[in-house]
Each structure stands twice: as structure tokens, then as C-alpha cells.
Design a protein that fits this description.
Elements: H1 2-38, H2 41-89, E1 93-104, E2 108-117, E3 123-135, H3 141-149, E4 154-159, E5 164-170, H4 175-186, E6 191-201, E7 207-216, E8 223-225, E9 231-232
Antiparallel strand pairs: 1-2, 2-5, 3-4, 3-6, 6-7, 7-8, 7-9
């Protein structure tokens, strides 16, 4: 009974508030009509002109806002379409093959790498650097970067769409390298890594790069991707 009484009181209050609002609106409207009727015709015309001016300004501001938003949307769409077009047409340098040519204590290490442009436009100012690391521990990105920095790289003016670039990488047969190659054949913990970085410019002037690291499988003597340092943009 108490709950029902509270609900009844709440309903009565809502109806009372609604009725009060309606009364205020009616009183306000009557007051406006009286003031409007008391105005002279000239003042009424001026009031209408002022009201129309305010409405015109508001409409102009709203239309200006939507015009600006439309221009922004079209501009962003053009940028997105242009970006998509560049991604579709630009050069993409990629590894075609990496093959071990020689690995012994007399002639050292020789590796042939073939890089191909899989894009639709040429790659310009092509620079390719390669390095070989023999280690008993996992090679780090810092070690790869240090080894690559010692290499001045192979420069080519350009590489057209579908064109291959062939590089032969050979180690210098100094005593320490010969010792490591010998250990590779006798110590299962020794690994041979081959890494490289290729930089180039696409037809739109953007600098792109390809970097990779491969590890030699001692059973098949084939190179497989190492989990670190592989990146292409």
C-alpha cells in the first residue's frame, strides 16, 4: 500500500510539472502577442528583417561548415586514392634465390644471391650490402648492422620491373675465417648466417628497403629464413 501510494504521488507530480510547463508557455505566448500587437508597423518590419538576418547568418555558418567538411572529405579521399595508386605501381625489391656456391677451408665461402624487382615501375639508386657471420650463439641485429656497415655495398643506377640483379658474395680467406669453417663441419653448435640490406628509391621518390637474414641448414646446405632481421616495406 505504501509503495502504491508513492507511485501515485510520483505520477501526480509528473502531471503537475507538465501542466505548469504548459501554463508558462501559454503565458509567454500571450505576453509576446501583446507586445507584438503594441508595436508599430515600422518596428514590426524591422523586427522581421532582423530575424531573417539572424536566420540567414545561421544558415550561412551551417552551410560553410558542411562545405568545409565536404572539401576535407574529398581531399582525404584523393590522398587515400593516391597512396593506394603508389602502392600498386611502385617498385618492390625481393629475394629471388640465395644459393651456397662454395664452403671449404681452401676457397672459403661463396654465396650467390639473386634479387628481383616484383613491382610495376623501376627501382632507382639501388644499393645492396651483404655480410656473413659464423657464430656459436644466436646472431643479434646489432651484430648484423655492424657487419653490414663494414661493407660499402654494390650500387646500380636502376632496376626495371621484372629485372634481376645477381650478386656473388665471397669471404676473405683469413686464418680466423678458415678456422670457423673447419669448426662448422665438426661442431654442431656453430651456425652460418647470411644477411643483407637493399635500399632503393621508387618512381615516386620514396626510399624503400629490404633486409633479410638467412641461416644455413647443415644437412641440406640450403639457406632458410632466420626469425630476426627480416623486413620489407
Amino acid at each position: 500500500m505504501i509503495k502504491q501510494s508513492k507511485q501515485n504521488n510520483s505520477g501526480s507530480d509528473n502531471r503537475s510539472n507538465k501542466s505548469n510547463k504548459q501554463n508558462y508557455m501559454a503565458i509567454g505566448w500571450q505576453a509576446f502577442k501583446r507586445r507584438w500587437n503594441n508595436l508599430e508597423d515600422g518596428n514590426k518590419i524591422q523586427s522581421c528583417i532582423a530575424l531573417m538576418s539572424v536566420i540567414s547568418v545561421v544558415c550561412f555558418i551551417v552551410s560553410l561548415y558542411y562545405t568545409r567538411e565536404t572539401i576535407k572529405y574529398v581531399h582525404n579521399s584523393d590522398l587515400a586514392n593516391d597512396s593506394m595508386r603508389q602502392k600498386e605501381l611502385r617498385a618492390y625489391m625481393d629475394i629471388d634465390t640465395i644459393r651456397l656456391v662454395n664452403l671449404d677451408t681452401i676457397n672459403g665461402i661463396k654465396i650467390r644471391i639473386v634479387i628481383v624487382n616484383n613491382g610495376k615501375t623501376p627501382a632507382y639508386k639501388l644499393n645492396a650490402k651483404f655480410c656473413n657471420i659464423i657464430s656459436i650463439s644466436e646472431v643479434t641485429q646489432e651484430a648484423i648492422n655492424s657487419a653490414l656497415n663494414l661493407n660499402i655495398g654494390h650500387n646500380h643506377p636502376d632496376c626495371t620491373s621484372g629485372q634481376h640483379r645477381i650478386y656473388d658474395y665471397e669471404t676473405i680467406n683469413f686464418p680466423e675465417m678458415i678456422s670457423w669453417i673447419s669448426r662448422f663441419y665438426h661442431d654442431g653448435n656453430v651456425s652460418i648466417y647470411f644477411a643483407g640490406k637493399v635500399t632503393y628509391y621508387d618512381a615516386f621518390g620514396k626510399k624503400d628497403s629490404l633486409q633479410f637474414c638467412k641461416i644455413l641448414d647443415r644437412r641440406t646446405f640450403l639457406f632458410y629464413s632466420y626469425e630476426k632481421y627480416n623486413y620489407s616495406n
